[in-house]
């Protein structure tokens, strides 16, 4: 029998087909039906959204504002259905209209407004802040084109654009009344707010994600207008609007582009002006800014906020330097996401001077005062002053954005224990000596709603039955699985659920890629951005070794290696790693000698939606970065939460995952961060490691012989040369121990009961890795923002 919810949803969808899509069912496409359902769902969350804004305004609440250049949101529809508790009603409504809910969900283009972990973390955090009923606003950029689409051809990665807005976006509301001018060089650009609701789970809270879109003011370049050069004026207007056109696809690589600095000041200035508008609207004083708002900088991309907030306080509101500085440093805190030197943002002072002369002047003044203080602390030590200065001296003077962020913040955090320790010991050692209490750790987390409830319904149902449904908001309740850890009937069901996830992925690979894989084989998965430090090439070498062993007659248990991830378009070596994986897949998958024991698949265009399909299907989670390089990782958490066992180094959050799930449920290998550093000090060279390892030598030779490149012996030369001459990420130092750990995996896999218990223990002990825990920690220790429950008013218009 249809529920009242499903009947109402059905009628609402029918209404929207007529009133919003202006169609009858005879002309309606699947996408029309998706939009109708999305709009019907939106109607049902508007009340929460409006009431939340109302509550926050009425109660003058202290608010966290999250500043991030990236939000890798993933599709909204299914997540909103889960958070509203309307999945079943929507399924019934669709069925009664002859539609499939799954097909409509698949119609939504995903907002890919981020590169990888950093952007996805921002999205998990928004959802957790709403679920914890914390007053919060997310600020960012409404890129017209998100992260590029990746196609995989025989030649490797090919990029194309992501026109995610082509069919419109039912989840956003434009707010032209909230738009602000931003001066960049000679020009003024206007930022217009587009708001998207972020629903909490099981609460009335719906917070706002506010993304800025650039438009040129009408009076833009009116000198040209007056001179009669109308076309030129319009062209200049278009140029201004390119500001929010495209997301830069560089992950862990600083490019220093003019447009990128413009994007940063653009969204930061709009966001700060918006905060002043809110402050004033509530009758508060400008000097109350730090009492009203806690600003979190997601890496250095919004670090210009330090100078821009100072500028607004002084130039727009007439506040003196010292008061402005106290307000600024009492408001801002900064999260670092990388230790890699090549990823640290710096801007040439010349470019800065052209685009942001006043902000540069303020940065110089901040630096002068900061160095004056430091000189008193370290008299006569000019070395330390050079190292901590906000300005890097050299052939070209550059502004160090990370230093600006540290100096302008009350708290600075890393994203996993090891990372935060290394920040204090290395990257920010001098600054941490000056302000030890400023530095702290907040280990990352992921939202259990999207990454378990949405991604893995069969597992969610089994958990509900076994331990009740509170795990969705109290993930530590997964501990309750302990009662079933030795229950063989339960372990059978556990395996059956995991099997479903693997079958689903296998079907996708057959349907979309034409690759047949045995879903009972061990699914060994590495999905993440392609980067040398993440060492996809270490996995590639291991696969080539396996291939040779099977060809030599060894009987290894069947494995399917699955890769996915994008390479920055300008990162030649990362693209070559993709080319190698594709080359290996082509040879291995065609070789009858493998006899079902080895398959390799590269999944094109890895995304949030694909992640939802992949994570539940993972048996073995590959987390094999060079120790000391991966700040945290969050895919490692998603996989373990869904019951994967990790093979990994002591890097990032792997360490904490292993501590939680137990060493006996984790395959550890490789040098520690400390040992890796030692290797460097004692003049590391890969050759001695290679010489004493015939297996890896053979693998390298086979790759060099053209075996995986249709006879082309040159193709992989740059990669092989790097591995055998410098090996910057110490692949050769870890290859033998990785092999040992992989052999241990083979053995463990043969004992299916043992594997099922290891899998269950991973899920059971992963409660710590909820983003709710991360956010509660930020709110209590860093933001001092408290819970504000939202009462929904009666009498609001019903959909
Ligand atoms: O941030 C990642 C780190 O590499 C991960 O270890 C960590 O888990 C996540 C979340 O804290 N960093 C990124 O994803 N970085 C970027 O995407 C990025 C984007 C633009 C410019 C520089 C880096």
TrEMBL record:
Keyword field = Allosteric enzyme, Carbohydrate metabolism, Glycosyltransferase, Pyridoxal phosphate, Transferase
Assigned GO CC terms: cytoplasm
PROSITE patterns, per the entry: PHOSPHORYLASE (PS00102)
Sites of the modification N6-(pyridoxal phosphate)lysine? Answer: 638
Q: Which cofactor does it need?
A: pyridoxal 5'-phosphate
Alphabetical list of Pfam families matching this protein: Phosphorylase (PF00343)
Name the InterPro entries on file.
Glycg_phsphrylas, Glyco_trans_35, Pyridoxal_P_attach_site
- Provide the E.C. number(s) assigned to this enzyme: 2.4.1.1
Which Gene3D superfamilies does the annotation name? Answer: Glycogen Phosphorylase B
Enzyme class name: transferase
Coiled-coil annotation: which residues?
A: none
Superkingdom of this protein's organism: Bacteria
Q: Name one GO molecular function term.
A: pyridoxal phosphate binding
Would the keyword Nucleotide-binding turn up in this protein's UniProt record? no
Q: Which GO terms describe its biological process?
A: glycogen catabolic process
The catalysed reaction is:
[(1->4)-alpha-D-glucosyl](n) + phosphate = [(1->4)-alpha-D-glucosyl](n-1) + alpha-D-glucose 1-phosphate
Free-text function comment from the UniProt entry: Allosteric enzyme that catalyzes the rate-limiting step in glycogen catabolism, the phosphorolytic cleavage of glycogen to produce glucose-1-phosphate, and plays a central role in maintaining cellular and organismal glucose homeostasis.
Q: Which family does it belong to?
A: Belongs to the glycogen phosphorylase family.
Protein known as: Alpha-1,4 glucan phosphorylase
Q: Which organism is it from?
A: Cyanobium usitatum str. Tous
Q: What is the lineage of its organism?
A: Bacteria, Bacillati, Cyanobacteriota, Cyanophyceae, Synechococcales
């Amino acid at each position: 029998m249809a529920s009242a919810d499903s009947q109402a949803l059905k009628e609402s969808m029918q209404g929207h087909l007529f009133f919003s899509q202006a169609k009858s069912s005879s002309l309606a496409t699947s996408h029309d039906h998706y939009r109708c359902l999305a709009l019907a769902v939106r109607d049902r969350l508007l009340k929460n959204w409006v009431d939340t804004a109302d509550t926050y305004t009425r109660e003058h609440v202290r608010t966290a504002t999250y500043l991030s250049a990236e939000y890798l949101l993933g599709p909204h529809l299914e997540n909103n259905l889960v958070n509203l508790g309307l999945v079943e009603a929507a399924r019934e409504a669709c069925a009664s209209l002859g539609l499939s809910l799954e097909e409509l969900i698949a119609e939504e283009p995903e907002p890919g407004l981020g590169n990888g972990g950093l952007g996805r973390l921002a999205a998990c955090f928004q959802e957790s802040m709403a679920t914890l009923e914390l007053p919060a606003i997310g600020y960012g950029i409404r890129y017209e084109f998100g992260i590029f689409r990746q196609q995989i051809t025989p030649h490797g990665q090919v990029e194309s654009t992501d026109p995610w807005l082509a069919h419109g976006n039912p989840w956003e509301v434009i707010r032209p009344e909230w738009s602000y001018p931003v001066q960049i060089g000679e020009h003024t650009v206007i930022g217009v707010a587009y708001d998207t609701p972020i629903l909490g789970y099981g609460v009335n809270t719906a917070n706002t994600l506010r993304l800025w879109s650039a438009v040129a003011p009408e009076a833009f370049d009116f000198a040209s207008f007056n001179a009669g050069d109308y076309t030129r004026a319009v062209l200049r207007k278009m140029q201004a609007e390119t500001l929010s056109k495209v997301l830069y696809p560089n992950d862990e690589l600083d490019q220093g582009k003019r447009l990128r600095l413009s994007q940063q000041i653009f969204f930061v200035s709009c966001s700060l002006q918006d905060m002043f508008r809110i402050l004033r609207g509530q009758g508060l004083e400008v000097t109350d800014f730090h009492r009203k708002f806690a600003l979190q900088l997601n890496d250095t991309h919004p670090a210009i906020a330090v100078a821009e907030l100072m500028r607004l306080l002084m130039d727009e509101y007439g506040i003196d330097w010292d008061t402005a500085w106290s307000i600024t440093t009492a408001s801002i805190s900064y999260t670092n996401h990388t230790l890699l030197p090549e990823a640290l943002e710096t801007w040439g002072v010349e470019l800065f001077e052209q685009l942001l002369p006043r902000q540069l002047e303020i940065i110089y003044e901040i630096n002068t005062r900061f160095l004056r203080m430091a000189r008193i602390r370290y008299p006569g030590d000019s070395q330390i002053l050079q190292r901590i200065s906000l300005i890097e001296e050299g052939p070209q003077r550059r502004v160090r954005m990370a230093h600006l962020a540290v100096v302008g913040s009350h708290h600075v955090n890393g994203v996993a224990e090891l990372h935060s320790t290394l920040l204090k010991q290395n990257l920010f050692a001098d600054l941490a000596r000056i302000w030890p209490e400023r530095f702290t750790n907040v280990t990352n987390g992921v939202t259990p709603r999207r990454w378990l409830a949405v991604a893995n319904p069969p597992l969610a149902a089994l958990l509900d039955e076994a331990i009740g449904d509170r795990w969705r908001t109290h993930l530590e309740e997964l501990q309750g699985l302990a009662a079933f850890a030795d229950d063989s009937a339960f372990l059978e069901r556990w395996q059956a659920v995991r099997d479903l996830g693997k079958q689903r992925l296998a079907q996708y690979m057959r349907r979309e890629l034409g690759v047949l894989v045995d879903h009972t084989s061990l699914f060994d998965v590495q999905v993440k951005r392609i980067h040398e430090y993440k060492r996809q090439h270490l996995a590639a070498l291991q696969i080539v070794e396996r291939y040779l062993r099977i060809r030599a007659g060894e009987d290894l248990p069947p494995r399917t290696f699955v890769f996915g991830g994008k390479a920055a378009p300008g990162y030649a070596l990362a693209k070559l790693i993709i080319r190698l994986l594709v080359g290996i897949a082509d040879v291995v998958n065609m070789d009858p000698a493998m006899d079902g024991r080895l398959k390799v698949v590269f999944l094109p265009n890895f995304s949030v939606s694909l992640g939802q399909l992949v994570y539940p299907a993972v048996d073995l989670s590959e987390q094999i970065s060079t120790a000391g390089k991966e700040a945290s990782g969050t895919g490692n958490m998603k996989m373990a939460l869904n019951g994967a066992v990790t093979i990994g180094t002591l890097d990032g959050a792997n360490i904490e995952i292993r501590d939680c799930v137990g060493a006996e449920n984790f395959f550890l290998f490789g040098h520690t961060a400390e040992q890796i550093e030692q290797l460097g000090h004692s003049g590391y060279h890969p050759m001695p490691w290679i010489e004493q390892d015939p297996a890896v030598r053979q693998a390298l030779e086979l790759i060099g012989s053209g075996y995986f490149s249709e006879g082309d012996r040159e193709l992989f030369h740059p990669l092989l040369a790097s591995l055998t001459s410098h090996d910057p990420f110490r692949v050769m130092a870890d290859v033998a121990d990785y092999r040992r750990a992989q052999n241990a995996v083979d053995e463990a896999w043969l004992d299916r009961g043992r594997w099922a218990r290891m899998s269950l223990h991973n899920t059971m002990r992963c409660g710590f890795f909820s983003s709710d825990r991360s956010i509660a920690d930020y709110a209590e220790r860093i933001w001092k923002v408290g819970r504000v429950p939202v009462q929904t008013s009666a009498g609001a218009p019903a959909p």
